[in-house]
Design a protein that fits this description.
It is built from 12 helices and 13 strands. The protein has 319 residues and is an alpha/beta fold. It has 2 domains: 113 residues, no CATH class; 181 residues, Rossmann fold, CATH 3.40.50.
């Protein structure tokens, strides 16, 4: 059910109900795929597209395959004739009625930014708005770190626009995405509707506050950069201990102190850290994998990022 933030931001779209998933499928069929967007802009991560095109005008002549990436991902205003040629009249009109597109003076602009991730569409923000940030590399480090094995239940704390659960649909039989920010949850709900992600439940919650006191096979947390005086990450590591058992796995992307990081966590079991910032850099950033039921061992691994290896991968988090 849509909350007040959803109705304010995305009321016309959410009013379409089941029709939204048909819009998502139709966009996929017309070329809004992760591979197609990467190929269009020559990037190895769809999250880099808005940054590399912010000050770059759309080409005067667009191929059919480039229309939707430039419109929906890069956020450029395009001739209505070109957009209609790709979408078709019916889909174009539906997206305008849903306030996903706006047409004026024979030109069309997108009112939301959509990123194709996996087989889904993540809604990141209203284009031109700054209240819901676009995903940064931390989101893709987290996506890359996720396990291959399917789990019954997955709890994504600080889910934001739910980009990780959307990118890895099928990983969890039931997924709860929790965040304290209602603006990003509104985007997450629209992305889930467009993607037909019925397994994804979104909740407003300060860390675990609105989550049932139960253990979870998989818990993830892409921690925001700490504010002065913030103890958010410390609270997470304290509270998460009551939500795991010997079969659980916890993945956290965060800022880390350069020295004695693993020792400061004081975690039992198996702890492996994939740190991708240079060894002399302070603060450092990386992904921590904790298996409470694993044999007691810990290791800090430095990962070199390259154009061919731009983000942490699951292989970086295996012994």
């Amino acid at each position: 059910m849509a909350d007040s933030a959803d109705r304010t931001r995305f009321g016309p779209a959410l009013a379409l109900g089941d029709e939204l998933v048909h819009i998502g499928r139709a966009l996929h069929d017309r070329g809004m795929t992760e591979h197609a967007v990467q190929a269009c802009f020559g990037v190895n991560c769809v999250g880099h597209v808005p940054r590399c095109t912010t000050s770059t005008p759309a080409p005067a002549t667009l191929t059919r395959a480039a229309v939707l990436p430039w419109l929906l991902v890069a956020g450029k205003t395009l001739p209505a004739e070109a957009v209609r040629a790709v979408l078709g009249d019916e889909l174009h009109q539906t997206m305008c009625r849903a306030a996903l597109l706006a047409e004026r003076d024979a030109h069309v602009r997108a009112l939301v930014c959509m990123l194709p991730v996996g087989e889904a569409l993540a809604v990141c923000n209203r284009i031109g708005g700054d209240d819901v940030p676009l995903p940064d590399d931390s989101s893709f480090h987290m996506i890359g770190a996720l396990p291959a094995r399917r789990v019954d239940r997955w709890l994504d704390i600080g889910t934001g626009t739910a980009i990780a659960p959307l990118a890895r649909r099928g990983l969890g039989g039931h997924v709860v995405g929790a965040d304290v920010n209602t603006a990003v949850l509104a985007c997450a709900r629209l992305g889930a509707e467009l993607s037909g992600a019925t397994e994804l439940e979104l909740r407003t919650s300060d860390l675990f506050a609105a989550v049932e006191p139960d253990t979870w096979p998989l818990i993830t947390f892409n921690a925001p950069l700490p504010q002065p005086g913030s103890e958010l990450l410390a609270r997470f590591w304290h509270d998460v201990r009551a939500r795991v058992d010997d079969h659980s796995e916890v993945l956290v992307h965060s800022q880390q102190p350069r020295d004695s990081y693993i020792e400061s966590l004081q975690l039992p079991g198996d702890v492996l850290v994939a740190r991708y910032t240079p060894e002399a850099m302070d603060p450092a950033f990386g992904v921590t994998r904790w298996r409470p039921g694993g044999r007691h061992r810990s290791h800090l691994r430095h990962v070199s990022l390259t154009p061919a290896h731009p983000h942490v991968t699951r292989a970086d988090l295996e012994w």
